[in-house]
TrEMBL record:
SUPFAM superfamilies on file: LexA/Signal peptidase (SSF51306)
PROSITE patterns membership: SPASE_I_2, SPASE_I_3
Reactions this protein catalyses: Cleavage of hydrophobic, N-terminal signal or leader sequences from secreted and periplasmic proteins
Protein keywords: Hydrolase, Membrane, Protease, Transmembrane, Transmembrane helix
An example Gene Ontology biological process: signal peptide processing
Transmembrane intervals: 21-39
The protein, known as: Signal peptidase I
Length: 459
């Protein structure tokens, strides 16, 4: 009788969890190294040439009058500046602590698959200085002729215009209703019509126009509390230097953001925006079955669209921009009709009253109201200033957002950046810093920490 075949040995020992964890850890490290070398790389912003979009090494404080946060470059001439929001001057930074510049994640492979696009931020090697990487915004593309005129970019002799998304990416804060000066609030910054249908509250502008048969209005003015007068909005940044008294350029391109809440499903609300030459108006007419949005240039109807109805007590966000002589309006993130382009205009007047509202037939409120300006490109330098600069094939013209304090294609001995010099595109601001205050008993401490509110994708 043959003996039974023996069963194969089965490893009944318990799994080695420590070994499995070690393997996963090694795999994780290899993946990180691969991504670090091949795909993505963190990059620190050391200088302020891209401020306020990306901040270099700087000092930070909060305005004692309105609470708005202010940054000043660590290499500024002195440690005094002003608050762009409320206008207070001679702010003392002597006690402010230094903060390292922003850190961004850079996609190192993107430009293997496509060319750099206009208005996007890129990291590259400057052909006049290979000692360190540079970060600037792409302005001119291969073969184009580039010139700066009155703060705008002209490509091949034509005004170069941004989409609203691009304009938002390039926007620079001017004023924020959410940070009202203590004691007086914003009372000096607004002119209110005789019907008094607008009430300035701490966090919003209250609208009481339900009983009005005619529109009531309110106008914002850029008011200097020190000079006791309205003044045109300038291109100065607190980040750069100590005084408003230095030569500032008047700006004309603006974006206005806010939220509108209505208590009725009928009525009318209008937003007027000017660039010193044209006055464009968005008119929203509320109806229970749907709302009408109209764009007017003076008395001429330019665009009209129907959108879903405004529901009582449901705030809706909107953006109205007049940038590069292009008017765009979006509601809840959607543009309901095509943008409208005005012809290029030179030597526009300074703007001290950039916007106003009108309301009729409803009660409600405007909240989260913020005014921004576009980048004003200074005409200092040797390339693309007095005359157009022609780029060669596979060359790009690069400019910093902080045009007053940026070393870029305007000033470099070699203006055009070759395509082969591009290192990647920043896609995430992942480590912005802020100063954190901590009290432990009777002791107070300050230390840098991550500014979670500024973490965002870079478009």
């Amino acid at each position: 009788m043959s003996s039974p075949t023996s069963a194969p040995d089965i490893d009944s020992s318990p799994p080695n969890h420590s070994r499995r964890l070690a393997e996963l850890f090694v795999l994780f490290i290899i993946t990180i190294i691969f991504l670090r070398i091949i795909v993505i790389e963190p990059y620190g912003i050391p200088t302020g040439s891209m401020a306020p979009t990306l901040l270099g090494n700087h000092k930070q404080m909060f305005c004692p009058r309105c609470g708005h946060r202010i940054e000043i470059g660590d290499s500024a001439a002195d440690l005094h500046s002003f608050c762009v929001n409320c206008g207070i001057t001679a702010l003392d930074y002597d006690s402010a602590k230094p903060i390292l510049g922003d850190r961004v994640m850079v996609n190192k492979t993107l430009y293997f698959f496509r060319n750099p696009h206009r208005w996007e931020v890129a990291v590259f090697q400057c052909p006049s200085d290979y000692s360190k990487p540079y970060v600037k915004r792409v302005i001119g593309l291969p073969g184009e002729s580039v010139q700066i005129r009155d703060g705008d970019i002209f490509i091949n002799g034509e005004l170069c215009r941004k989409s609203q998304e691009e304009a938002l990416a390039c926007s620079i804060p001017v004023w924020d209703y959410r940070f009202a000066p203590s004691l007086i609030g914003w009372s000096e910054n607004f002119k209110i019509g005789p019907e008094k249908a607008f009430v300035l509250e701490p966090t919003q502008i209250r609208i009481e126009a339900a009983q009005l048969s005619q529109p009531s209005w309110i106008a914002y003015q850029n008011w200097s509390s020190e000079n006791r007068r309205q003044e045109p909005i300038l291109d100065l940044l607190p980040y750069n230097n100590s005084s408003r008294a230095i030569s500032g350029q008047t700006v004309s391109d603006f974006l206005l953001k806010g939220k509108l809440m209505t208590e009725q499903d009928t009525g009318r609300f209008a937003i007027e925006l000017t660039d010193g030459e044209a006055r464009l108006q968005i008119d929203i007419e509320f109806h229970p079955e749907g709302s009408f949005i109209r764009l007017w240039n003076g008395k001429k109807l330019i665009r009209e669209a129907r959108c879903n109805a405004f529901r009582p007590n449901k705030p809706r966000s909107w953006v109205f921009s007049l940038v590069d002589r292009r008017a765009s309006f979006s509601l809840d993130g959607s543009e309901w009709f095509p943008h409208y382009d005005l012809p290029a205009a030179s030597q526009r007047k300074g703007v001290a009253e950039p916007f106003r509202f009108m309301a009729q037939g409803f009660n409600g409120a405007v909240s989260d109201l913020q005014l921004f300006r576009d980048i004003f490109y200074r005409d200092s330098g040797i390339h693309g200033v007095d005359k157009p600069f022609r780029l060669k094939d596979r060359e790009y013209f690069m400019l910093g957002d902080n045009s007053q304090n940026s070393d870029d294609s305007r000033t470099w001995p070699i203006a055009g950046v070759p395509e082969r010099n591009f290192l990647g595109k920043p896609f995430l601001l992942h480590q912005p810093s802020r100063m954190t205050h901590l009290s432990v008993g009777s002791s107070n401490y300050q230390f840098p920490s991550v500014d979670w509110n500024r973490i965002h994708w870079i478009h």
